[in-house]
Amino acid sequence: xxxxxxxxxELSYRLTQQGWLSELSLVALENRDMLAVLQxxxxxxxxxxxxxxxxxxxxxxxENQFLVLAGVGWKPGVVGVAKIPAGLDSPAGYALxxxxxxVSEDQSREKRFRFPQLLIExxxxxxxxxxxxxxxxxxxxxxxxxxGDRQFSRxxxxxxxxxxxxxxxxxxxxxxxxxxxxxxxxxxxxxxxGNLGSWQVEISDWTLSCSDACKADFGRxxxxxxxxxxxxxxxxxxxxxxxxxxxxxxxxKGSEYDGEYRVDWPDGSEHCIxxxxxxxxxxxxxxxxxxxxxxxxxxxxxxEKELADYRDRLEQLVAARTAELKxxxxxxxxxxxxxxxxxxxxxxxxxxxxxxxxxxxxxTVMVANLDLLTDLTAGSERARRLIDNVQRAAARAGQxxxxxxxxxxxxxxxxERLDLNRLFDDFKGLMxxxxxxxxxxxxxxxxxxxxxxxDRGHFEAALLNLAINARDAMPRGGTLTIEIGAVELxxxxxxxxxxxxxxxxxxxxxxxTGSGMTPETIERAFEPFFTTKEIxxxxxxxxxxxxxxxxxxxxxxTLRSGLGHGTTxxxxxxxxxxxxxxxxxxxxxxxxDVRGTGTxxxxxxxxxxxxxxxxxxxxxxxxxxxxxxxxEALAILQSNEALDLLFxxxxxxxxxxxxxxxxxxxxxxxxxxxxxxSGFTPRDLSAHDVPGSEFQLVGKPYRRAQLAEVIxxxxxxxxxxxxxxxxxxxxxx
Length: 733
Ligand SMILES: Nc1ncnc2c1ncn2[C@@H]1O[C@H](COP(=O)(O)OP(=O)(O)OP(=O)(O)O)[C@@H](O)[C@H]1O
Ligand SMILES: [Mg+2]
Description:
By secondary structure, the chain is an alpha+beta fold. 46% of the residues lie in helices and 21% in strands.
């Protein structure tokens, strides 16, 4: 064969092989089934090389073996089943690991490799093995085999190698397709699971394509047309501007886009749609489209809002409850303090009252004996002077006891109906005098009548005490204001004040611009004997008198003061509905002759007082019968003993007061004259049940002249019918 002929033959052979390769590439392109492609490839290369046998060996790395994946020429039960070793000592194994084609010409003379049993069984003695590469590791080997005298040329090897490259590419593409398909599936699954719609907008012409789920988020059916403009129109007008801005910015910057918008569905319902997306750029960096997802978050937002509202409400409730607790705790503490204060005053009051009562009896004895002594020592000027001194001291002591009794609320009060405004007028001069020249006094009466049922003398004493305190607090002068007004105290106002009921009151506020008090002084100011004044200046009984008098009159008193800010003491007295009598009561005329005649039953539990009373009355010319308590007196009253007058102490042992004794005496002997005597009013008698309103009363300690006058006047008065009272003024020591 000439060189020319040789060249022509090779050319034609190459062209033929090229034809086979093109066919193979077509098969690979058109066929989606990988196994079919491999099978077809085996057929084509076998035909191309003019052999009967070809196969694709897939490398199984875990087993270091090959699986005969596809092939032609083999006995049944080989393709898809048979495995051959992949060690370096086999031609296929070597081709795979070395990455080079292996051509075995003659099996019987082959020194490098051992031919696998499968080839020997098929009578094969020649083979070419070429590697089929993969992306990260080799896929396997493409092998053609023959028996007989078929010689493989370098062109045959090239042909096979090209076929193997083509297969590798086809396998790779197939794998990539699979991956894309898998990813697509995964994305769909994710969208479905997350209830997400997906959308895509082409930036060139704003066409929108979207999933059914996305349409559903806008209230549309799967078969409804839904354009980008429809989407924009569905969004609430304000939110639409926001959406456009966000979208434009994402396109411009190629960034992500994320927002929530109010969307109106065609059925009229309002929804909250979450949209999220990203710009996709072309190879030149120009944004091509926006890709994204949608989600209906209406329900979630509603639940979140409800939760937030609930949390807010809860927080408000907690805050309100805490405030209430704090308030009630503060209330409780204040009430407790008020109670504590009231209890303290009560205890001190009881003690003071007890002492004052005993002291009064002692004074009564002293004063009466002094009077008797006066008679005995008549003629001695020196004795009279001495006795007078003692009488004056006793009178002072009497005043002190009366203040103590006032604090203990055991004064014998003689309430009268008074208009405090009018009382004020009478009182102005005294107040000005009491407060001193340096102090300016402003008195402001109430605009309406200020009517109260109170004891005039004690009320005046209280005001005087306050005026003197104010004066003492303003040594360099200042202003004293006394203001009267009508007030209504509600349940809340009197909540913390013991023994005070809601209702109408007259308030007398006494204010000064003086030194004021420290909190400690305020706390103790009403206590008897509490004073901050130097010895001899104050007894500490002024405010005690005010307190006791006001309390006993059914009112209460408050104190407001601060160091350097002056002081206001407010007295609240129950307001009476009826007007006061226009005429002031005129004091009784002084006595003329004090001696008298008749029989008097004296009832007194204190022996000394009894003795001195008996002696005084006997001296005054009366016959005297004595009893030491109620039952003893009743026995005499029930006897035939002639009697003109009952003179009894009010507070007595053995269960009967002077009051009840007097009432029973009146029943036993109608028209019997009665005079009662007392140092204080028993607690269990109300202000309207005081002895003075029903019977004639003489306060302890009494002077002889005073007693003589009361007894005489009572005996001279017309007989009284039980139950009606003679408003003769009560006689005070
Ligand atoms: N208007 C006031 N300004 C400043 N402190 C006052 C005022 N009123 C009373 N106080 C204080 O309260 C204390 C008690 O007063 P209270 O009137 O009971 O007794 P006193 O004035 O000290 O003595 P007394 O009134 O028996 O002469 C006073 O010592 C004083 O410290
Ligand atoms: Mg005082």
